[in-house]
Design goal:
Layout lengths: L11 H30 L2 H5 L6 H26 L4 H25 L3 H23 L12 H10 L5 H25 L2 H5 L4 H12 L5 H27 L4 H29 L6 H30 L3 H8 L7 H18 L4 H15 L1
Helix pairs in contact: 1-3, 1-4, 1-5, 3-4, 4-5, 4-6, 4-7, 5-6, 6-7, 7-9, 7-10, 7-12, 10-11, 10-12, 11-12, 11-14, 11-15, 12-14, 14-15
């Protein structure tokens, strides 16, 4: 199969050109991660935290030179390809920030160069699949707009794209960057940076430190809303990966996967509070679950409105619309999450997976 002779042509050449942008950014972000890790090991970062600066200023100060190098690369490659510099920056700056967000989390979570190298390579693989895979379907399926590289392909082809398509491709990346910066400011302390713990415990600790114990209701509102971009990106990636399967299999995989991902995202913060004994009553756990589910629901619908404006002709979206699932009621989210958190509070956090299964079964049955 020759990509250029297929109908429509597979944009292999244009996607390969985008690597001139993202490969240098990957290397620059690796240097950033290595620098961060080296300062953690030498404890220079701990000393810096005692200086009269905020943790956000520390992170930005560490990241800013590498962001500047990346912007120079984006401008240089665009000029070399005789492209529009402003358009190139508009397309690839969100990609750059997304990559740095992922590598910031790697740098904060892992203490040794061995672990950092392994998870940096893993992150590189996952991010590459997310960015490159959908772009290969440019002109074939509107779901390709989940990747900003689709916009780059159109830019190199001399084609235009709409504001809705641009925001669909870039908004989740920018939200993930903002979320990573916020989490970074919460976990940037000596105990977290220097601790040796399994990955799941480090993630749980990061979530626990992100929650403001003095304002649990507001924190659950924030946590429920902030989980949406990550869930959104995972779900759209699943859709893109299985969109060529027969409709029954495609819908089954997407709906099952989406349910489990959503229920974890809505309930994990409450489960961690229960594990840490910050919350001890079933009633309080259910109240926090309702708040988190409500925030998740409204932010999810806001993003879906953007998606529908772009991929309304997608066979998958038409199937969902015909089934009424795009009008998934607030009550379903609230009840399923309340079941997960209520059961976890009742029987203990060690049974959280079973409680998660119970809430997911209700969600799946509704779907």
């Amino acid at each position: 199969i020759i990509p250029s002779l297929t109908n429509p042509p597979v944009p292999l050449a244009q996607v390969i050109i985008t690597f001139l942008y993202i490969v240098p950014v990957f290397f620059i972000s690796l240097f950033f991660t290595s620098s961060f890790t080296e300062e953690k090991i030498s404890r220079k970062l701990v000393v810096l935290l005692s200086a009269p600066v905020t943790r956000l200023q520390v992170i930005i100060g560490k990241m800013l030179p590498y962001l500047a190098y990346s912007i120079i690369v984006i401008i240089g490659v665009t000029l070399a390809l005789r492209g529009n510099v402003l358009l190139g920056l508009a397309v690839f700056t969100p990609v750059m920030l997304f990559i740095f967000a992922i590598y910031l989390m790697v740098a904060l979570t892992y203490r040794t160069f061995k672990d950092q190298t392994f998870f940096s390579v893993l992150a590189l693989s996952v991010v590459t699949v997310y960015l490159v895979g959908p772009a290969m379907f440019t002109g074939v399926n509107d779901l390709s707009y989940i990747s900003p590289l689709t916009l780059a392909v159109q830019m190199f082809r001399g084609e235009t794209f709409t504001a809705g398509q641009y925001f669909l491709a870039t908004t989740p990346l920018l939200l993930v960057f903002g979320q990573a910066m916020y989490v970074g400011t919460r976990v940037l302390n000596e105990e977290y940076l220097m601790g040796f713990r399994p990955l799941h415990r480090k993630i749980a600790e990061a979530i626990a430190m992100t929650i403001d114990k003095a304002h649990l209701n507001l924190s659950m509102l924030f946590m429920g809303a902030s989980m949406v971009p990550v869930v959104f990106m995972i779900q759209l990636s699943i859709i893109a990966l299985v969109s060529n399967l027969p409709i029954p299999f495609m819908l089954g995989i997407v709906l099952l996967g989406s349910v489990f991902i959503e229920e974890i995202a809505k309930s994990v913060s409450v489960a961690i509070l229960l594990q840490n004994r910050t919350v001890t009553s079933v009633r309080k756990a259910v109240v926090l679950a309702v708040i988190a589910a409500t925030a998740f629901f409204f932010v999810e619908k806001l993003l879906l409105m953007v998606v529908m404006s772009v991929v309304s002709d997608s066979m998958f979206v038409n199937a969902l619309a015909d089934g009424g699932l795009l009008l998934l009621p607030l009550g379903l989210h609230v009840v399923s999450t309340a079941i997960v958190c209520g059961l976890t509070a009742k029987v203990g956090t060690r049974y959280y997976p079973l409680a998660l299964l119970a809430g997911s079964v209700l969600h799946i049955m509704y779907n």
